[in-house]
Design goal:
The structure holds two protein chains of two kinds.
Chain A (H helix, E strand, L loop, with lengths): L1 H18 L12 H21 L35 H24 L4 H26 L6 H28 L3 H9 L2
Chain B lengths: L11 H13 L14 H33 L5 H9 L3 H29 L6 H24 L1
The chains are: A mainly alpha, B mainly alpha.
Cofactor (chain B): heme
Family (chain B): Belongs to the cytochrome b560 family.
InterPro entries (chain B): SQR/QFR_C/D, Succ_DH_cyt_bsu_CS, Succ_DH_cytb556, SuccDH_FuR_B_TM-su
Chain lengths: ~190, ~150
């Protein structure tokens, strides 16, 4: 087995030098690359041993799907293109929305109730905050790479739900007494 | 003199297939149960759980209110207040505490998160202290709200 692993890593090292633009990385004896290759081979042997002598029970709560190899076994994981719209701007927008909820949440406790515009702003902010929160949950638990169709289903399902809820609260705000006043009436009933 | 290891010759392509098989069989990281119970990650998990429960309830009500005329449900504030008012006092207090607890916790912990976003209070000691502060504040204010 060791010989097989060693051969595999030799090929890996060769592949590294042939595909890399840093051709100076040829793993000659004593070089860093050859040391890394040896360490990796040793780690791999350890992993094989550990797997063979694994005695603790295995609980597959969310078992990993089949692992696939894209390209060759030696390709690095792709780095996504940097995009401020999906990165820092999105993050800042999330924070601004959360910050806006602080005064909107304190106001009804301080003033007893809210005027219709501020009440509608509170309901709208909660809808947006919930939508972004659910998005984070979906992103974390339904990986797009492994479960693309499930992800798309939940993503569009969430959009539909948010739209429905937004219309529902528009109706509630325009036909009923408003969110904070309704909570107050039910709470003190 | 080292003992010669038993070995066999493998063709380069076969060796590559062994490597591929190994790459496909990488270990999966263990589940949460391997970690020691600590307030830092417990509150982080609770923040998501309480947020999801509150937003879930909010979504269910918003969608149900929109569909109410179709099914003849009465979800307007007057009938909900009447229904809630007819419950026994114990049930009212327990229900109010059950709603106030996730709401106050998520609100206080949200402010704690916003504080972290400005780079403050990130040492282990501060995280533990502010964590217990949030728990204490949530329990006390939920108790007050439940009695209102």
């Amino acid at each position: 087995m060791y010989a097989q692993v060693r051969t595999a890593f030799k090929i890996e090292a060769a592949n590294l030098t042939s595909t890399s633009k840093y051709t100076t990385l040829t793993p000659h004896k004593g070089s860093i690359t050859s040391r890394i290759v040896r360490i990796r081979a040793a780690a791999s042997r350890k992993a094989i041993k550990a797997a063979a002598f694994q005695t603790s029970s295995k609980r597959d709560i969310l078992p990993a799907g089949p692992q696939v190899i894209e390209g060759t076994a030696n390709d690095p994981a792709p780095v996504p293109t940097p995009s401020p719209t999906h990165g820092s701007y999105h993050w800042t927008f999330e924070r601004l929305m959360a910050i806006s909820l602080v005064p909107l949440t304190i106001a009804p406790f301080a003033a007893g109730s809210l005027n219709p515009i501020v009440d509608a702003a509170l309901a709208g902010a909660i809808v947006l905050h919930s939508h972004v929160g659910f998005q984070s949950v979906i992103i974390d638990y339904i990986p797009a790479k492994r479960l693309p169709r499930t992800r798309a289903l939940f993503w569009w399902g969430l959009r539909a739900a948010t739209l429905m809820v937004a219309i529902g609260f528009y109706e509630f705000e325009t036909n009923d007494v408003g969110l904070t006043e309704a909570i107050k009436r039910v709470w003190t009933a | 003199m080292p003992t010669p290891a038993a070995s066999q010759t493998v063709k380069e392509l076969d060796a590559y297939h062994i490597l591929e098989a190994q790459r496909r069989n990488r270990p999966v990281s263990p589940h949460l149960s391997v970690y020691k119970a600590q307030i830092s990650w417990y509150l982080s998990g609770l923040n998501r759980i309480t947020g999801s429960v509150l937003s879930g309830g909010f979504y269910v009500f918003g969608a149900a209110y929109l569909c109410a005329p179709l099914f003849g449900w009465h979800l307007e504030s007057a009938s909900m207040a009447a229904a809630f008012g007819s419950l026994p006092v114990t049930a009212k207090v327990l229900l109010k505490f059950g709603i106030a607890m996730p709401f106050t916790f998520h609100s206080y912990n949200g402010v704690r998160h916003l504080m972290w976003d400005t780079g403050r209070g990130l040492t282990n000691k501060e995280v533990v202290r502010t964590g217990w502060t949030v728990v204490g504040l949530s329990v006390v204010s939920s108790g007050i709200l439940a009695m209102m």
